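Private note to self, pasted from the team thread so I don't lose it. Backbone tokens:
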């Protein structure tokens, strides 16, 4: 039947009332519904079939997901690059002149660098350019950029940041969190000045008196998709900050601070680029003179006030170079040989892995593509948490910086999976097609048909790789030999089962015989039953009277698994 939809990005009373005054026809969102349904079905088709397939092939639960697996693959590939990395020595020559230094390119051998050093005597200016440059303030937060910043500055996980922001949204203090846009709509521009002042006075900054408001820097209708960027609401003026939990307060301050920075003055500086010829070798250097600090003053102060590690680029300092002219001769020249070593890639943090998820496939996507990467802002945090819960990844590090590292099991999974399931590019292409379905530009049935055909092909062709037992050693400890086939019986969260897939022997932990008598099964009892066929138990509970008694439990596995009681008679 016809219906109307309430579409709002804020929980403020004003926004809710305005939304009810402008209800939209449900048919406007049919394509959005189709895209959501396709995403849900694609995740289910890939996840349930691939998980069952590879779990069966390798004899243990191996969770496979349309987005989760390519994300794990990126973490595994990063660790492989780190393991394979071999540091290499390199050498550079520095020349010191009046007021500045310049450096040569890298040399692979010390002898080559030493020869250049010996040939240096007089430097001739080949290039001397000075240009004034402008650096715009960072954009407002979408969910992914907020999660990355909170991880870098505060050490929060992506899931923690989402939870804190969701709570703030439900308290009407920030706008809708699950957004992939970093801009506001034009109709919000007129109220921006008052909102910035409110945010700035809520979280005042030492040595900063006011924040200029350049609304045009954060307003762009074309870059707002379903929801605009995350910003604080006018409910800030009614909020008692002391009543907010620490995590929510920190996220609220981050969001408020970013609003103030994003509308601030640009950062301007003069950059000088110098190239010198010294003994036939080119030496270069750059100098910087700050003209206007602009947004970098509050940005650095905000970061420092929150206990974050201030990026050195945010605290600009002058590195002036004396005025030079092309053809000018400089002497005397002081020379110095420096030795360095190449460094491996860094381990992934949640910050860098979220960035990698967001950028996956971006190089191969169309320039005008609205949506790129693995997953959506709303799902990425959950994907990272699931990798940890399923034992494919783990967090390691100190309180502030935790790396997200694949486990041995996670590395093994990526080793045995076909490219189609672990390729970030393939999944990113699927996300692009889902976005096209959302815009009504692609057929949802065709998308699902492609997914189904891929999985059918996988089911028909997948075979275990050689050396599988070494890749996936059994994590279960044997509690005894199976009375039916002689194979090891191992414990699982649900019970004790034969390790042979062809054998049907098993004892569930919630078996009615034991549960009715108040017995909680453990590995010791099962070991005795498997070894002797019996185990003596004390303090069994009578179902009829509730009284306790002692008895010996007998296991008979000749016709299925049956249990009986034997009482000793004095």
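Design output:
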């Amino acid at each position: 039947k016809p219906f109307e939809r309430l579409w709002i990005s804020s929980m403020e009373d004003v926004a809710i009332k305005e939304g009810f005054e402008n209800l939209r026809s449900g048919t406007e969102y049919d394509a959005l519904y189709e895209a959501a349904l396709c995403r849900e079905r694609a995740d289910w088709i890939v996840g349930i079939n691939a998980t069952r397939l590879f779990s069966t092939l390798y004899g243990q639960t191996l969770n496979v997901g349309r987005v989760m697996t390519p994300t794990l693959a990126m973490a595994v590939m990063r660790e492989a690059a780190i393991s394979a990395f071999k540091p290499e020595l390199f050498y550079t020559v520095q020349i010191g002149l009046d007021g500045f230094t310049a450096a040569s390119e890298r040399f692979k051998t010390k002898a080559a660098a030493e020869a250049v050093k010996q040939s240096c005597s007089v430097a001739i200016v080949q290039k001397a350019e000075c240009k004034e440059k402008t650096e715009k303030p960072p954009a407002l937060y979408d969910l992914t950029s907020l999660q990355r910043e909170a991880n870098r500055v505060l050490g929060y996980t992506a899931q923690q940041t989402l939870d804190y922001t969701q709570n703030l949204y439900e308290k009407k203090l920030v706008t809708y969190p699950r957004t992939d846009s970093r801009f506001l709509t034009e109709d919000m521009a007129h109220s921006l000045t008052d909102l910035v002042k409110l945010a700035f006075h809520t979280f005042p900054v030492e040595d900063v008196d006011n924040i200029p408001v350049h609304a045009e820097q954060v307003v762009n209708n074309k870059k707002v998709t379903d929801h605009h960027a995350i910003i604080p609401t006018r409910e800030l003026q009614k909020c008692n900050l002391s009543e907010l939990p620490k995590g929510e307060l920190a996220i609220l301050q981050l969001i408020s601070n970013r609003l103030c920075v994003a509308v601030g003055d640009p950062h301007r500086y003069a950059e000088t680029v110098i190239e010198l010829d010294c003994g036939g070798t080119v030496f270069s250097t750059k100098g910087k003179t700050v003209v206007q600090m602009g947004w970098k003053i509050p940005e650095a102060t905000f970061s420092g006030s929150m206990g974050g590690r201030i990026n050195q680029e945010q605290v600009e300092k002058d590195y002036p170079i004396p005025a030079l002219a092309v053809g000018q001769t400089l002497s005397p020249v002081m020379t110095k040989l420096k030795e360095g070593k190449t460094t491996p890639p860094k381990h992934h943090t949640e910050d860098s892995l979220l960035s990698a998820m967001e950028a996956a496939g971006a190089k191969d996507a169309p320039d005008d593509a609205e949506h790129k990467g693995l997953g959506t802002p709303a799902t990425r945090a959950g994907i990272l948490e699931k990798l940890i819960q399923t034992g494919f990844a783990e967090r390691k590090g100190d309180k502030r910086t935790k790396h997200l590292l694949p486990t041995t099991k996670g590395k093994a999974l990526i080793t045995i999976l076909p490219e189609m399931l672990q390729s970030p590019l393939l999944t990113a292409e699927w996300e692009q097609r889902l976005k096209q379905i959302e815009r009504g530009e692609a057929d949802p049935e065709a998308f699902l048909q492609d997914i189904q055909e891929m999985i059918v092909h996988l089911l028909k062709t997948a075979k275990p790789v050689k050396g599988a037992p070494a890749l996936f050693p059994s994590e279960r400890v044997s509690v005894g030999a199976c009375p039916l086939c002689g194979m090891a019986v191992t414990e699982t969260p649900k019970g004790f089962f034969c390790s042979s897939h062809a054998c049907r022997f098993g004892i569930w932990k919630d078996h009615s015989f034991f549960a009715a008598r108040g017995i909680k099964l453990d590995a010791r009892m099962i070991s005795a039953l498997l070894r002797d066929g019996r185990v003596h138990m004390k303090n069994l509970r009578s179902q009829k009277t509730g009284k306790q008694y002692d008895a010996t439990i007998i296991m008979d596995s000749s016709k299925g698994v049956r249990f009986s009681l034997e009482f000793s008679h004095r």
